[in-house]
Amino acid sequence: MPEQRLNSLDLPKDPADTRVVVAMSGGVDSSVVAGLLKQQGYDVVGVTLQLYDHGEAIHRAGACCAGQDIYDARRVAEDLGIPHYVLDYERRFKETVIDAFADSYLSGETPIPCVACNQDIKFHDLLQTARDLGADALATGHYIASRRRPDGHRALFRAKDPERDQSYFLFATTQEQIDFLRFPLGDMTKPETRELARAFGLAIAEKSDSQDICFVPTGRYSQIIERLRPDAVEPGDIVHVDGRVLGRHEGIIHYTIGQRRGIGVAVGEPLYVVDLDAPGRRVIVGPREALETRRMTLRDVNWLGDRPLAAGAHEICAKVRSTRPPQPARLLVGEETIEVELLSGEYGVSPGQACVFYESEAEQSRVLGGGWIAAARPQPGTMDDSRKSAAAAMAAR
């Protein structure tokens, strides 16, 4: 008996017999995914997650998953003639993403809640919901490519459009999840996506892209943290890397590593936030060269290579910012720790951010996983010595 041909989603079924749940945010990208799959004859079901109390974000451009977005998703589903469900995930989202975001900031980190949302909500809870609905796949509007490997499993690759590539935010996706997920926009550009939205006659074709973290509609992170943890925000000292106390601050949540403006002190030279000492409630500042980092210790590493990650040094490419291209690096796997050494320095690396691994520097290179930055070491030299001096000086007080 001849083997059944694979459909456009690499599944051995006719499209009409293939149920696909589409995660619909109410934006252009996910709406086009639903339209494409409907056009290709799939059994499409739209699902939208209500993730937070959207009161103050309603009708505000640049925030996703708000009231207007739910309305837009429902309208698109009606226009396409597909069933649509809204699931209330507010409590789960607060416990898993928002609370963790606040705690991370209070510990002196710079968190990336979108990764946690993908990891714990969309690709965990929503994926299970899709299975419960009898779906063969869960499709999203992320700009990342997914392709079948010779062994039948799937691999992730950077998107065709480097300006839209979202692979940095999806490093924590597991192999089991990747095999169930589909990303129809991975080989498209944003202008092509908008053109399809127009061709489908969707009212949201010209809708602006989301810009803010969805639960921080004002863009001011400190406000949400102060509301969630009012007793945890404490003042402290602003300390130069040479040990001088330059002033006071009202809470480390108002600062991020690499910050140049709004530090609150002036000494006749440009100053940057180079470290945040949460236990000591200190904001450590210094010249730009004190920000350079080449080596990082990672936690919760997710490896997506074909073979298990063995001890030793591995040549990879890595990126520690979503807007930067991957750069050559070495992945150093020890018995108890995993580190990344960048061959060229990076400035303003902060604990809480992600370090994502790639096979090469090529535009559509394969994603090999990544991890969370637990500690970032400064470039060896005088700045490192200065930090130690500052810590010693404060400890003696």
What's the layout of helices and strands?
Elements: E1 19-23, H1 28-39, E2 43-50, H2 67-80, E3 84-88, H3 90-106, H4 113-132, E4 137-139, E5 144-148, E6 154-158, H5 175-180, E7 181-182, H6 190-199, H7 221-228, E8 236-240, E9 245-249, E10 272-277, E11 282-286, E12 292-303, E13 312-319, E14 327-333, E15 338-347, E16 354-358, E17 367-378, H8 382-395
Parallel strand pairs: 1-2, 1-4, 2-3, 4-7, 8-11
Antiparallel strand pairs: 5-6, 8-9, 10-11, 12-15, 12-17, 13-14, 13-16, 14-15, 16-17
Helix pairs in contact: 1-2, 1-6, 3-4
3D architecture notes:
The termini are far apart. The protein has helices spanning 28-39, 67-80, 90-106, 113-132, 175-180, 190-199, 221-228, 382-395, and strands spanning 19-23, 43-50, 84-88, 137-139, 144-148, 154-158, 181-182, 236-240, 245-249, 272-277, 282-286, 292-303, 312-319, 327-333, 338-347, 354-358, 367-378. Helices cover 25% and strands 27% of the residues. It has 397 residues and is an alpha/beta fold. Strand 8 and strand 9 (245-249) form a beta hairpin. A 6-stranded antiparallel β-barrel has the order 12-15-14-13-16-17. It is globular and about 70 Å long.
